[in-house]
Amino acid sequence: MDRTQKKEWVGSLHGTLGDVGLVVVTHYSGLTVAEMTALRGKMRAAGASFKVTKNRLTKLALAGTEFENLADLFVGPTAIASSRDPVAAAKVIVEYAKANDKLKILGGSLGTMRLDIDGVKALATLPSLDELRGRLIGMISTPATRIAGVLQAPAGQLARVLKAKADKDAA
């Protein structure tokens, strides 16, 4: 990689870091190409990304972003998981790390708040943004359904009473 390619790479990563809400730093030593490809596929499906990084260049890209506090984690074979949704990347990376002990979570950052390993795992237990939206829509639509049911109930009861009266009179 020559100097201009390095500059472009740093600029690209800097731009990416400006658009995300969460960055998780990992060590990937020992993962096969197939395992990395599988992990990247899972991350992409969740709306996140997983990128192997060059430590010195990544530290340059972190400068001036809200993730500057992660610079000391970039030692050894590192990769970063990132996503706009603060929970998506954490969920996938924690789930994958449980299944594959070659992937080690070093820490992360949710905006300017630095997270240790336990913080990343705690973040992974939260519902994702899509799940929260679904729950909210469910809670909003449930009262309307109940109101419609309550309003229909008296009319149905009145109809049953009238039918019973008519049946009684006919007998």
Report on this structure.
- Helices cover 58% and strands 16% of the residues.
- The protein has two domains: 3-126, 2-Layer Sandwich (Alpha-Beta Plaits); 130-171.
- It is built from six helices and five strands.
- Helix 1 crosses helix 3 (55-62) and helix 4 (88-99) crosses helix 5 (117-124).
- With 171 residues, it is α+β, with helices and mostly antiparallel strands.
**Large-scale geometry:** elongated
Strand order of the largest sheet: 2-3-1-4-5
Helix coverage percent of residues? 55-70%
Structural class: alpha+beta
Q: What count of helical segments does DSSP give?
A: 6
Mean pLDDT: 85
What is the class of the largest domain in the CATH system? Alpha Beta
Give the termini distance in whole angstroms.
98 Å
The main pleated sheet reads as: 5 strands, antiparallel
The H/E string reads HEHEHEHEEHH
Uncertain parts: none
- Count of domain modules: 2
Summarize the structure.
The chain has 171 residues and is an alpha+beta fold.
How would the blueprint of this fold be written?
Elements: H1 3-19, E1 22-27, H2 33-45, E2 48-52, H3 55-62, E3 78-83, H4 88-99, E4 104-110, E5 113-115, H5 117-124, H6 129-170
Antiparallel strand pairs: 1-3, 1-4, 2-3, 4-5
Helix pairs in contact: 1-3, 4-5
